[in-house]
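Pilot study result, target chain (286 residues):
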Amino acid sequence: MKKLHIGDKVALVANSNGLYKENAEKVERLTAVLTDMGLDVQKSKYIYAENSIFNGTGKERASELMSFFEDNSIKAVFDISGGDVANQVIGYLDFEKIKNNKKMFFGYSDLTVILNSLYSQCGLETYLYQIRNLVSDNAEKQIAEFKKTFMNDEETLLDFDYKWLKGKSMHGVVVGGNIRCFLKLAGTKYMPDFTDKILFIESLGGDVAKMATFLAQYKMMGVFDKIKGIILGTYTEMQRKEYRPSIEELVLEAIGERNIPIAKTEMIGHGTDSKCIVIGRDIKLE
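Predicted structure:
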């Protein structure tokens, strides 16, 4: 899956909450790691929070993102933010221009809204992955797997282990991301069509009540009547605090008698050891 080459330009952006300025050293380390890989790193001028959590208006952040999409020399865009306000950007994006200037876009958590909007509006495959993992606790392994996957011809960062909760196989195009953030697209034209899709959902925070209400909303939207499978990622708070009912039990209750295959992986989510899953790409588990 060789997508990046030595000398390619890549961009760092922050379309959700602005990063606190104490993170500047980490951003510089990330820049250095990417540079050591042979990549030419460009940075958005809207990365750090200046006004409360805001690193520019939604329109300003969108304009910066569009400038990178329209720049033919930029081969990949890595969003290094997370939080709550990525959906402020979506209405200002020119999806026709993006469709004609497709490139890799990476992000996670709140960036779920942009990842899925790019897929639904442009047919663009997007990468649910936080590039900051390259300078986090599992940096050595993450760097090696990132290089093998995106600068060589392997699938290392995309391979993940899983166990079956229901069924023994699933096949379809992946949509989703963070269980809470994905719901921000409900009722908008940016929400992907769920027909025959594989729904991937994960979460950092959230107790039993929050997970139950999110799942109830997916159910009321008719999602479980359309999809062909569910992949559960990690649910950090739920699993760390061993809440009961568990996320597995809540999901099984939510789908009821529907014959939906369900797989659980401990390798994709908010952890610094997380693998990558591609939104908009066909996946087959068996």
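One observation from the pilot: The CA atoms of residues 208 and 243 lie 7 Å apart. A full batch analysis is planned for the follow-on phase.
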